[in-house]
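Deliverable D2.4 — example input (structure tokens):
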């Protein structure tokens, strides 16, 4: 791929050729980043090219993605999700501009479809026969969806706490599911072992740099939808940290190409019960393993695999990391829905809970533009959403008199 210069270790700096590894650094085991030839890309990719492009999906940015052509991309439409101007919520918070990037509008209802799309395209380029992942739901659902109908066998390592709605999707799409009697981290390690011993292609977050590249297209879309500008602050929920590192890479890509001039601050939001990145941020050091326990299973991680690059993104952007409680997350689900019509799963609602906390602390200036990334649709975890509202178990008889008794008949 001429547009790719190399894959470079974020820790030790060693450069790898694209054929050397699709995973971690073979010298120190560090995370790899993909380096592009921006001078070459700039010759064929700019505002005018995008304005003429009628393919409103993530592949409109293929010149900035690590695959050769559109021929091998999954046929399902991924990307170009709506960016809502949430005026009602902004007014309630006392800030001027709030935008909601609703990633729940992707094929399987989450931002993970972006990463899976690039990983699948890469696996097809390598003529892989089996692609695998470990996930508590969103990433594995996206992989199962995008490989359905393709000649690419999909094996998913699903931890015990996978929500039923997400588990059902795996079977509906026809993936081979290995249900692991353990948490996400244990399933992740078992998936890595299978990758090494069986030579499967692994999509896993923080392990495969190609899946990170897919997530940066969310940043591209935000800039394009805001007329070639980045927000002042972008608030992102963090589990493994790959969405943060991916989106920061996207903003940097556009800046290097001269498409945007200013860069946003990146704010990481974690659940208090799964706060490895927040704790590392406060210490000023590397992430350490925690014992994760939160209702927001999509961001429940003992050890974040992409913490190094996520923390780097926070430092480079002048950002920060905060935590919110499960109670604040549950409260945010109906508040977000009633103020913007966006139904978020707990991990997605965490960003709104985080925004409320930032505003209360005076960390958001009134004239700043803020974008929050709702990474997953609430229908993916109904059991959690039910805890955020009271559903009465009462009925009325099917008569008008009953409606009158309720006081509903008054004009």
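Example output (designed residues):
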């Amino acid at each position: 791929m001429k547009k790719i210069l190399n894959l470079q270790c974020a820790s030790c700096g060693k450069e790898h050729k694209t054929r050397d590894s699709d995973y971690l650094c073979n010298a120190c085991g560090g995370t790899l980043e993909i380096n592009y030839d921006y001078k070459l890309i700039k010759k064929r990719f700019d505002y005018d090219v995008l304005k003429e492009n009628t393919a409103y999906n993530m592949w409109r940015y293929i010149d900035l993605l690590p695959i050769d052509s559109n021929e091998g991309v999954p046929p399902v439409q991924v990307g170009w999700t709506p960016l809502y101007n949430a005026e009602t919520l902004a007014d309630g918070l006392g800030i001027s501009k709030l935008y909601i990037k609703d990633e729940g509008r992707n094929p399987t209802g989450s931002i993970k479809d972006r990463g899976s799309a690039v990983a699948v395209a890469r696996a097809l380029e390598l003529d892989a026969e089996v692609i695998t992942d470990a996930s508590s739901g969103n990433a594995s659902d996206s992989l199962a969806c995008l490989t359905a109908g393709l000649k690419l066998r999909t094996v998913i390592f699903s931890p015990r706490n996978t929500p039923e709605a997400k588990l059902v999707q795996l079977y509906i799409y026809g993936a081979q599911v290995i249900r692991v009697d353990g948490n996400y981290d244990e399933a992740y390690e078992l998936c890595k072992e299978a990758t090494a011993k069986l030579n499967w292609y692994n999509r896993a977050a923080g392990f495969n740099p190609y899946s990170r590249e897919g997530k940066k297209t969310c940043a591209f879309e935000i800039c394009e939808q805001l007329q070639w500008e980045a927000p002042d602050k972008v608030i992102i929920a963090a589990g493994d940290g790959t969405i943060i590192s991916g989106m920061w890479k996207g903003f940097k890509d556009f800046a290097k190409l001269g498409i945007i001039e200013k860069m946003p601050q990146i704010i990481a939001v974690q659940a208090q019960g799964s706060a490895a990145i927040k704790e590392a941020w406060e210490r000023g050091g590397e992430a350490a393993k925690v014992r994760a326990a939160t209702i927001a299973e999509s961001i429940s991680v003992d050890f974040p695999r992409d913490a190094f690059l996520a923390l780097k993104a926070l430092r480079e952007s002048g950002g920060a990391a905060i935590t919110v409680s499960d109670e604040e997350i549950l409260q945010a689900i109906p508040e977000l829905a009633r103020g913007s019509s966006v139904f978020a799963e707990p991990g997605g609602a965490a960003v709104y809970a985080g925004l409320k906390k930032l505003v209360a602390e005076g960390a958001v200036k009134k004239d700043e533009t803020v974008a929050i990334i709702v990474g997953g649709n609430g229908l993916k975890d109904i059991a959690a959403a039910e805890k955020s509202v009271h559903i009465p178990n009462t009925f009325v008889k099917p008569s008008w008199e009953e409606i009158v008794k309720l006081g509903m008949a008054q004009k």
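The chain is about 40% helix and 15% strand.
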